[in-house]
Structure prediction request, 256 residues.
Amino acid sequence: MTSMSTQVQLRLKDALNEQTIKAKVTVASWEQAVEAAGMVMVQANLVEPRYIDAMKKTLRDLGPYSVIAPGIAMPHARPEDGVIQTGFSLVTLEKPVAFGSAENDPVDILLAFSASDKDRHITALKEISVFLSDDDLVKKVRSANSNDQLLDAIQDFEINNTE
Amino acid sequence: MIIATLCGMGFGTSMLLKLTIDEILKQEEIIGYKVVPWDLGSFKGQNADIVVAPTDMESHLKNTSAKVILVKNLVDKAEIREKILAAINSLEE
Prediction:
């Protein structure tokens, strides 16, 4: 694996913006939830449309382990599945849906990502881990009724975590 | 000693686990452990002392001699800390 220092790392504050977030989307199944997160990524020019199918296939083939915490899924596929650039999308659901996770269903927060290689996303991943372990912040994300409120929650995180 | 974190592809969920465990080892000043993210394919051909994986991957871990840790909430540092320290302690005994 290449050293992290040789890569320009993507930061979460740059990854999550008006183009890559969407609050309170209405879906009826986990497939539709992944499609919603994937469509945001397609529109933000992060991935080709085929990446959406690859994310669904990954969940089907490898299991729902990408539901990483109660109510939170982190779907993704491989660089060769149509990644244009490394990025993230944050989509919250109006009503939670089941992904088949024994521990962490149902899901109402999706943090999908695309990785153009195996390490440019690592700093943002680390930030996500800090972000998601803050219960108050997750609550704020969950209850945000508009994209603006969702962006507010993300900005709160950045203010508290400036290095 | 090798701690392998496992997921289907080796750079998402397993990377998230690796980052958390690296931080815990640093805080606890534990040395002599290398944390490596593995995908399911490379996992089959290699050996680790400890394997850490999401609970939903339990079925993939039947044929390993490594000590297996299953994590329910991958962003819950308290859960991961407790389980990884217990596993390390049992290996050092």
In short: The longest strand of chain B covers residues 2-7. The longest helix of chain B spans residues 77-92. Strands of chain B lie at 2-7, 34-39, 50-54, 67-71.
